[in-house]
Amino acid sequence: QKRNLVKLKGVSAATTDGTGVTLLANIALPDDLPDAHKAGAEGIGLFRTEFLFLNRSDLPSEDEQYEAYLRVIRSMKGKPVTIRTADLGADKALSPEAMALLGDADREEFNPSLGLRGLRFTFAYPQLLRTQLRAILRASSAGPVRILLPMVTSPTDVKRARDLIDEAKRELDEAGERYGTGIEVGGMVEVPAAVAMIRDLIPVLDFFSVGTNDLVQYTLATDRANAAVSEYYDECHPAVLRFIAEAARRVCGAGKEISVCGEMAGRPDLTDFFLGLGCRTLSMDASSIPTVKARILRIDIEDAETFAGRLLRRRTSESVRKAVEDHQAQYL
Ligand code: PEP
Ligand code: MG
Questions:
Q1: Is the distance from the beta carbon of residue 118 to the nearest atom of ligand 1 less than 6 Å?
Q2: pLDDT tens-place string over residues 150-173
Q3: Which residues constitute the catalytic centre (predicted)?
Q4: Is the pTM for the entire model greater than 0.95?
């Protein structure tokens, strides 16, 4: 079985009817690149850049970040690299020493998941985002880069981020520094507000990526890191499936790309669901790529659409899980 999966490395992911699916890797640091290559990833769908900022008492300089982004872009040799701006806060907090460098040593979070995180954190410390954007833009002259914004809830969030991107470009222009052209800007769909606002976000974003880890957390009001409520953290909750479907339907209908990059993207028992909704790009931990690819090679798109419709009609998590298991049986 394992050997068969390794053999799949050079096979491109397509369904039995010939629909191509792009399988990308999630990475936290450039050190994760070898695994992404071994798994045959067709690009990086999520570079969680906040990891460059963690477990240290200082902040990564523009040059240090530039080097890290450049390493990833060069290593992907022309394949797309999706760089998410730092999603700091919540479970990924800066050290007190680094917070002191931002001039906010005494800041305390009483409810971190609902506190300053993602875009909001970087809007509170815009210098941190400016530095990061300059580093990303400079690195983008070495290969195709897309910028992904975490925790988007409104078009205003996107406008603020785009203004900072434009400002960074102007600074680089003035300094005579090069950057890539046509850099797309996408948004994470990971807060229920982004689903409710999807029609208004579609015109202002170039692509979308569903962050199921946070979408589950915020839809079900369940801290993803709190064991006391883990039984309520339920990827099969109909509310979660309906939100994902609503976002996918609207974004695909508008002819834009929507991928899934949370943990659910790596579940082969849900691959049919995502393809059935119209998703053609999935980004996951490299270790999941071979099994998801093996599943895609056996999927018929029309069957997947029927399956997605069936799941969306379920009214309880239990019944969703039963339908997923029954469907899974057909592949055994
Ligand atoms: C997510 O929320 O699903 C996601 C991909 O982002 P992170 O896990 O880094 O919050
Ligand atoms: Mg997230």
A1: no
A2: 999 999 999 999 999 999 999 999
A3: 261
A4: yes
